[in-house]
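Handout, section 4.2: multi-component inputs.
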Amino acid sequence: MFTQVMDTISTWSIPLVVALVSLFAICKKVPVYSVFTEGAKEGFSTAVMIIPYLTAMLCAIGMFRASGAMDWLCAVLEPVTSLIGCPSEILPQAIMRSFSGGASEGMMAELVETFGTQSQIGRIASVAQGSTETTFYIVAVYMGSVGVSNARHSIAAGLLGDLASLLAAIFIVNIMWF
Amino acid sequence: MMNYIWVGLVVIAVIAGAVTGTMDGVLNNIFDFANTAVEISLGLIGTMAFFCGLMKVMEVSGLCEKMSKAIAPIMTKLFPDVPKDHPAMPAMALWMAANMLGIGNAATPFGLKAMQDLQTLNPTKSIATNAQCMMLAIGTTSVTLLPATVLALRAAVQTEGAAEIIVPVIISTSISTIVGITCTWILGKTKRWKWENVIEREIAQGTLELNDNYLGDDPIVLPEGYVCKVE
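Output:
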């Protein structure tokens, strides 16, 4: 029941947002069609920009997995992750998430490709990836832009937020589907 | 750091492959995943272009401004040190609204502007104020209504069920935002990170620099004979 409601909202939200945003924009006299295509052009370059990072990460992780090293790593992590109902395959990506958005995107893509988009691993990986920003990058860029070098507790708070979003992702996916 | 991680992965893979005798698998996965990467990336372009188009419409139609007005009332509670009518307030609200809508490219300039405005309220040159810490905590844990890249990656692998993660992402980002705000608030009061304590420590070490462009009305008074050791 809960899962059905959530799934329905997920299914409806994008079409509804598309319709409502377009309506809102046309009421504001925005030339919706030309603005949309202009934005889509930017999307093209964003997608192309991802390719090298995705290739570098997917190949390295693919090698790592095929060699059996990933199984060793997962076996080491298993006792920790099984406590919170998390498949150990997720943890490398989850840790990478706070350091590099591109690298963790590559790791998520590899998990989704290897285990399937609707597997427990694939779903947790997707939700965890979508749930937080790259803490170290954000703090470095914005603090750096005004010359602040002592960021005080912002890294610690950001990382605790990342941890919370990972735990929430595991918890929600397990409740909804498994 | 990425250099070491990447080299580490590749070198360990080759050594492990040699030990376990799975070198053919390692070799095959180089080619397989290089192809997969391009397949995913090409499959990504369409979805990505669609969402970026939609986001541009959101941006141009002024949806961000509308949303930033909606969150304005809680801003004064989150940033007690920032005066209500300070220019940093609308800039931060716009940055947060753009983050929520997932308009990454449009969000950055708002964020940089907000950070600069907050810096005028920073009596020091290089120590982050409570407001600056809070702004970034909200930014990195931001509620995400449309995780565009993840949706596009999923759709590139399999269209069916690609969008099923939207509600889970909204729930989990809401939780992480609450945790981020709470942690910033609590950690900012600890002995190690409390504003007054950090200032005191930096004065003792001679590393404190005053902000020449400070516009607030509560400047730091340096003790007599203070010598700044920073070049």
